[in-house]
Amino acid sequence: MKYVTIINNERYEIEIDNDGSVLVNGELRDVDFLNLGGSLFSLITENKSFEAVIDDDEGRIAVMMRGRLFEAQVLDERAILLIQRRGAQPSGSGEVQAPMPGLVVAVTATVGQKVQQGDTVVILESMKMQNELKSPVDGVVASIHVEAGQAVDKNDLLVEIKAAASETST
Amino acid sequence: MKYVTIINNERYEIEIDNDGSVLVNGELRDVDFLNLGGSLFSLITENKSFEAVIDDDEGRIAVMMRGRLFEAQVLDERAILLIQRRGAQPSGSGEVQAPMPGLVVAVTATVGQKVQQGDTVVILESMKMQNELKSPVDGVVASIHVEAGQAVDKNDLLVEIKAAASETST
Amino acid sequence: MQTGPFNKILIANRGEIAVRIIRAARDLGIPTVAVYSDVDRTALHVRYADEAVHIGGPRPVESYLRGDRLIDVARRTGADAIHPGYGFLAENAEFAGEVMNAGLVWIGPSPEAIATMGDKQAARSAVRRNKVPLIPGTEAGMPDEELIYAARKIGFPVLIKAVAGGGGKGMRPVQREEDFAEALATARREAESAFGNGDVYIEKLLLGARHIEFQILADAHGNTIHLGERECSIQRRHQKLVEEAPSVFVDLDLRERMGAMAIAAAESVGYVNAGTIECMVDRDKNYYFLEMNTRLQVEHPVTELVTGVDLAKEQIRIARGRRMGPTENLLEPKGWAIECRINAEDPYANFMPSTGQITTMILPTGPGVRVDSGVFSGSEITPYYDSMIAKLITWGETRSEAMLRMRRALSEYRIMGLKHNIPFHINLLNSISFIAGQFDTNFVEQRFNMNTYEQRPTTGDMETVAIAATLYAHRKRRLASQVVAPAKRDASNWKWMGRFERMHR
Amino acid sequence: MQTGPFNKILIANRGEIAVRIIRAARDLGIPTVAVYSDVDRTALHVRYADEAVHIGGPRPVESYLRGDRLIDVARRTGADAIHPGYGFLAENAEFAGEVMNAGLVWIGPSPEAIATMGDKQAARSAVRRNKVPLIPGTEAGMPDEELIYAARKIGFPVLIKAVAGGGGKGMRPVQREEDFAEALATARREAESAFGNGDVYIEKLLLGARHIEFQILADAHGNTIHLGERECSIQRRHQKLVEEAPSVFVDLDLRERMGAMAIAAAESVGYVNAGTIECMVDRDKNYYFLEMNTRLQVEHPVTELVTGVDLAKEQIRIARGRRMGPTENLLEPKGWAIECRINAEDPYANFMPSTGQITTMILPTGPGVRVDSGVFSGSEITPYYDSMIAKLITWGETRSEAMLRMRRALSEYRIMGLKHNIPFHINLLNSISFIAGQFDTNFVEQRFNMNTYEQRPTTGDMETVAIAATLYAHRKRRLASQVVAPAKRDASNWKWMGRFERMHR
Fold first, then answer.
1. Strand pairing partners for C381?
2. Which of C324, C339, C303 is nearest to C215 (CA)?
3. How far apart are CA B117 and CA B133, in angstroms?
4. Distance of CA D334 to CAs B87, C309, C360, D435, Å?
5. Contacts of C308 in chain D (CB under 8 A)
6. Which A-chain residues 72-91 have CB contacts (< 8 A) with chain C?
7. Residues of C in contact with D377 (CB under 8 A)
8. Which among C422, C471, C493 has the least Cβ separation from residue A67?
9. pTM score, two decimals?
10. Using a CB-CB distance cutoff of 8 angstroms, which residues of chain C are in contact with residue D20?
11. Which active-site residues of D does the annotation give?
């Protein structure tokens, strides 16, 4: 199985054969990859021992290794083809959800407003702190589902933002 | 539900009602009993906080609390009746099993031999140490399933001892 | 009673500090009573205490802030002293008074000392009498024209602060005189709307200042000593993240002078028990009293490790009316200690708090490592309380040894199930400025962030991450598509996967 | 090479000591190579090291004892030094020589020192030259009639010991002269059958003797110092279970004299690196050299905690050819330290080793607590290696503080999935004789056991156990009989059960 894996704009062609052998950009690598329970993994490659916490969220794979967070995109042959054919894709979900239960202190966006990725749209109080919830995308505020003073549960949808289409690198 | 619970020869009459309330020798006790995962339990009774590791093995319940091991027998109404009717019962299993994988160094009992509880019947080497496996009951050696030099797995049956019948207190 | 004999302590707190106090009491042979809210039934403080009583709902106002219930529980359980820990009711003079009126010993300073030090202006007046240097500034309640005149006299830059503010809220720096009038108007408006009180005062804005604090210990026999300083400049939004003892910035001469000042500040309110004098120290080693914390600090372990003194035990000793153990000021700390606060917050998402269950936790152990924590594998981090899940503290003969051990301990520490700030600490411990001891209170916010690492990841690390991510995705994909027929040599690299999973079934 | 520069260390060991050495190397900035057998792939030493290489099957002879493979792995990975830890090849002079012949640095003493100290008679001859007192006894190879004459001269009681024995095996005490001839014949027969060598020697049997050892540190620059004593009399079948530093039995005068003797013993073989002089000390404070352990001891942390010296780091420094950090004998230890060896063995079943998976582990933490361990929740304890799973070490300003902290730490420590000896340690720490420091090497076997507690359980504890056992059985019964319909008030006492289980699903 062939994959293209992109990390910090670096591109790796990785092939995993049925016999478990791993080739990186055509070169064979000695790899022992092992789940230690939950999202904890041990990887020994060319004798080097690594431990990584790996989670994924909608196709993006987050690898925490040696105290650093890396975001990886792993594309299989179908995904590569799809991207080559389409050229561009929307740059992600525009939903702002409550990351934890809390009290909405303020909604700082209005429907129809243009927002940039990183703009604060809601202020949520939880764990004795005021937390600014930001737009995950550039776009336009499509709908607002809460108001100041309202208590919300984890994962409640607060604000929807219609993402502006953008170019994607492959 | 009424129980008779015996610990270190002390006898407790304990009643657990459907509403969860607990009576000990007729007196109501405020009890909050909670599993913390596995065999770990938290118990708060009359405000006192206890943590105990509870396991059971063929009807005998082992409670490890404050660094001490207590063996408890919990008898329900049927068991109490049964014992009252029968008066006596065999005093337990006479099987000597391997508590861990290892190498049999010596079998020190012979078939037909009379043994007392605590007599060594097999010497097993494991974890760099020689361990004496003892008869769990008074009785007669019924059969021997291993010989010196043999490797055994955990829980392999090594020796069977036919227990002598004995009186049982209720 | 403020001091006197007692035989059982009620701990009016939760989390790691409740566990810390239980440990101190146990080491002294004194039984403890824990209290807990609905969501804390399985918490370690409930399980480690001798007794535990449920006191209400998960929100602090329903439980840990219910002074009446706490005193009632003490009465019912026969506890004759209350230790407040930090936070919650620890600096509530009224509660301290109620505890004492109920005939219980309050393990802390007198209500009067708490009240005086809890009021900014009263505290300034009190310590000024003992010649403690204060940041040049004005009193509260001045009209605009007097404030402008005062600001000019103090010299720019200055800081406009809301009287009702605190913890970094309601502050506004002003760099130049021409901006002052507008800034003042805005500050008053904000203070009015945020705190219902538009009163402000101004202070000199110190440049490149460090936050350095002195540990004070005073008993009821008239002895007051200091146990040296703690360096607390590594902060974010005025929340301390990393603390050290001693400070690279403090030499023996400065320690002697600041220590004497700290004792004078504590004596100005007749302080008894453990307390902390917080100071700002500018580039030229001018130091100014900021405030006194009339309780045990979160960061007290770094002082414990360089003095050998158990501060929680000393608090109890002092409250019992005994003489405290140490009798001399600490001028020569033994070695070096660093504390990292491990918080349930995501350093990659603006330090957003994270809640959920800790599914896996592997603690760092070994030489020079101490963990103070109230959680375990299986603990639930709820939104009701602050986000600190543990304090990781390392000791070394030198600062460098303490830092290397901290790096190692951070790299061993595994917490899963929620986001935490261990990556922040690892990144900080790799920062040349931090290693060199060159930082002030603005360091984290202005010059340090998670996106600019001082060292780029190596090509080897990048490739390893690529392999790990790809094998992860590959495996997940295979599981999803139920491809079960293994190829003939499939065992080679995956053998351990199967083996481990068998082992852990 | 015995000393010289190096840049990467191969650790020829597993378990907690491998982790301990990785930590020391990491604190010095030196990369490490771990080796592992089939069953150790997920062990912490494999995960914490920079590199890890599989070396064979689970049995030590297939892996950790394969000197050839270890040297080969060092070559392949570019490791230029080997640390042997303790056990396995640590005291194998031949392997030490092979390592040095391969051009690698051996982090330990010279093969000659290992060989001399590894041979009882050679060791006695060597130290005797430096006037080190020896237990009165005979040489090996003497015929029966000479042995009987010698025993009479030494005075009864005496001990007959097999030349090929060790670790307590092949020893036979003789109380009276009239029993000697028969005992000698039996001892020779047993030694012949057990070790294939019937040769024996005799020694004076010391009464009420303690096992006290001195930590030695020597560098290649001619410096040899001692770091004080460790009290190791709490043993069972000659296996140490609890160690302390210092010893209640050793005063400053005895420490000075025994320390000088220990240095003389080490110098008799030109010793370089860390080593331990084990002694027997009788009731009258007469002390006798027993043997020298030419490696780091299991119990080294208690010395570290009362000296501030990191012994594993000093070993590496010395092997690099540098001067060691500490330069003076330790005559005044700082505080007190105690170590309990946490073993996977059942104190209620004759200390039978226990194997299996550690399903739950909650570590004790907080002030004064150190854990050295190579396991985690999920670790498998296999029958292939020794049964030690962790070392729990506490420090206090006084022996009493260290003991109280140990009691507390033991009560917090939770290990589930297999049997362990924590109950033994809790019972020991409650023993008046132990608390009073009154014990000798026979204490555990002769005067202490798990069935006679010095304090009976309280009526309250007994009732609590009865309630817990009954609720446990009741609940299990209900689950078994699938009684699912809850009664109307069933939530009252059981509410938390459900809540917790929901939380932990």
1. C356
2. C303
3. 11
4. 64, 13, 37, 20
5. 334-335, 397
6. 72, 74, 76
7. 360, 362, 377
8. C422
9. 0.86
10. 366-367
11. 295
Measured in angstroms, the CA of C49 and the nearest CA of chain B are apart by 7
The three-state secondary structure class of A33 is strand
DSSP β-bridge partners for residue C169: C166
Buried b (16+ CB within 10 A) or exposed e, C254-293: bbeebbebbbbbbbbbebbbbbbbbbbbbeeeebbbbbbb
> Are residues C46 and B42, on separate chains, in Cβ contact within 8 Å?
yes
Q: CB A48 to CB D50 under 8 A?
A: yes
What residues of B are in contact with residue D422 (Cβ under 8 Å)? Answer: 67
Counting beta carbons within 10 angstroms of the beta carbon of residue A13, is it exposed (0 to 12), middle (13 to 18) or buried (19 or more)? middle
The residue written with tokens 């010649």 in the block is: C131
3-state secondary structure chain B: CEEEEEECCEEEEEEECCCCCEEECCEEECEEEEECCCCEEEEEECCEEEEEEEEEECCEEEEEECCEEEEEEEEEHHHHHHHHHHCEEECCCCEEECCCCEEEEEECCCCCCEECCCCEEEEEEECCEEEEEECCCCEEEEEECCCCCCEECCCCEEEEEEECEEECCC
Residues near C42 by Cβ (< 8 Å), separated by ≥ 6?
B34, B36, B42, C378, C379, C380, D496, D500
Domain boundaries, chain A: 2-86, 95-163
Q: Do residues A146 and A152 lie in contact, with contact meaning Cβ atoms separated by under 8 Å?
A: yes
- CATH number among 2.40.50.100, 3.30.420.40, 3.40.605.10, 1.10.760.10, domain A95-163: 2.40.50.100
Q: Round to whole Å and give the CA distance between D24 and D309.
A: 12
Task: Look up residue C473 and give its amino acid.
Answer: A
From chain B, pick out residues whose CB is under 8 angstroms from the CB of D466.
5, 7, 10, 12, 14, 24, 72
D382: nearest CA in chain C?
C503
Count of other CB atoms within 10 angstroms of residue D416? 21
Nearest to C359 among A5, A10, A38 (CB): A38
Q: How far apart are CA C228 and CA C302, in angstroms?
A: 11
Q: How many beta-carbon pairs below 8 A join chains A and C?
A: 177
Cα–Cα distance measured from residue C131 to residue C261, given in angstroms and rounded to the nearest whole number: 8
Which residues lie below 8 Å from residue B113, measured CB to CB, with a gap of 6+? B140, B141
Distance from CA of B70 to the nearest CA of C (A): 20
Subunits that touch chain D (at least 3 Cβ pairs < 8 angstroms)?
A, B, C
pLDDT in tens, chain A (170 residues): 899 999 988 899 999 988 878 999 999 999 999 999 889 999 999 999 999 999 987 778 999 999 899 999 999 888 877 777 765 444 456 888 888 788 898 898 899 999 988 888 998 887 767 778 888 888 899 999 999 889 888 888 999 998 876 544 43
DSSP structure class, residue D479: H
**Which spans in D279-361 are helix H?**
300-307, 311-319
* Contact (CB<8Å) D378/A36: yes
Contact A126/C at CB under 8 A: yes
Do residue A40 and residue C462 have CB atoms under 8 angstroms apart? no
CATH top-level class of A2-86: alpha beta
> Backbone phi, then psi, for A111, in 5-degree steps?
-60, 135
Burial class, C499, CB count within 10 angstroms (exposed 0-12 / middle 13-18 / buried 19+): middle
d(C-alpha C410, C-alpha C433), whole Å:
19
Range scoring the smallest mean pLDDT among B47-61, C20-34, D37-51: B47-61
Q: Which residues of C touch D41 (CB under 8 A)?
A: 496, 499-500
pLDDT < 50 regions, chain C: 483-505
If you measure CA to CA, which chain A residue comes closest to C362? A40
C-alpha angle with apex C456: C450 to C460, nearest 5 degrees? 125
Contact pairs from chain C to chain D, CB under 8 Å: 102
